[in-house]
Amino acid sequence: MKNCFLFPLILLCLSCGGKNQPQKMTDNKTASKIKLMTLDPGHFHAALVHKTMYPQVDSTIYLFAPKGPEVNDFLAKIEQYNTRAQSPTAWNIESYIGNDFAEKMVAEKPGTVMVVAGKNSEKIDYILEAVKSGLNVYADKPLVINSEGYEKLREAFRIADEKGLLIYDIMTERFESTTRLQKLFSTLPDVFGELIEGSEDKPAIVKESVHHFFKYVSGNPLVRPPWFFDINEEGEGIVDVTTHLVDLVQWEAFPEEIIDSSDVEMIRAKRWPTVLTKQEFQEVTGLDSIPDFLKKDVKNNELHVFSNGEMIYKIKDKYAKVSVIWNYQAPDGTGDTHYSIMQGTKCNLIIKQGEEENYTPTLYIESGGNIDLEQALKSALENQVAQEFPGTTMEKVSETRYKINIPEKFKVGHEAHFGQVTQNFLKYLTDGTMPEWEVPNMLTKYYTTMAGYKMAAENK
81, 127, 171, 269 - which has most CB atoms within 10 Å? Predict the structure, then answer.
């Protein structure tokens, strides 16, 4: 593998070269390209980052990984994207496969960005070593799953700030169209008013999601690695998927505001297991038996995975609730689902994804104290909404409720959101900076999940 170095600067790039001599961009067209290094792709999200190509990114993926089924799955997905009939990608892969893969990446550094999506227990150590060696980090959530990891994350951000590097977690749900519209409407006083304070029993903002261990990704049944079911490796549900939900609470309720950990007060939290039969475990992993490292979680010949969690907390004096549930497999015709509500002084903004919505996320706006809601909605659709989602309409479904109809072109699906959030990260990387609220709010997000986990674990 070539020993190349590439350091992104705001208005200047240094090209790769064995002697590390600076050259002008015009001397080598590839010098202006961002080069990505994928480390230990244990989760399929690592491949989804590459489901699309990006004009500012070099076509070579530098892969560093241990030998095993996870890296084989990553390579198979990249090959699938390269050979698909519609809009095929053209990735090249330069691989280093060996037990010293992490050390090899840091030593050689053929790129400037480490992409990591795998074992959550090891992720923060990869991140810390990456920034110490001068690498930017683009990481799947969660960055941390325990309090020790959180302290390392604080240190990683401190080092990144000193070195002018970026650490960014992949928050795909910010790009889901109904969520974006829910946020947009919540910023319009004539429609929404303002977010109420709420209460412990009736929070002002709620985010709930249901996920499934057995699912299809890129058209094929997903094979989960056995460690995915080990809470010591993957982390419990209350610190995993809830990362997205806590992020959305902050992002929607307090747009572009800096949120400090002192703004968060955990009220109550709980966790409970999903129980898998031996057959279900075999179907989703492809293994003949439950491995020894999971025997600690086996009761009555069934695997108990603490993948479910719920927390209620106050954030800047507003009550919020997030919860995640994992089932084994969704009924036919269904899939992962999401529910959300933001309660305003003039109306409620509700996202539902049930049978009535054909399991498609749908935004409803329900009149509260806004007697002029219909006129306010019409004005918003013609002005603010039309700028971001042209063609969006409303449909009155009851005396107090309106359904927002979003054109199909904006409903791109979860897998496509990886391309959208990656473009956002690449813009930050090119600019050499992120909005001032991103880093402090990332830290507060993980402070919140850690506080919820601690309280849930104590309340056995």
Answer: 127
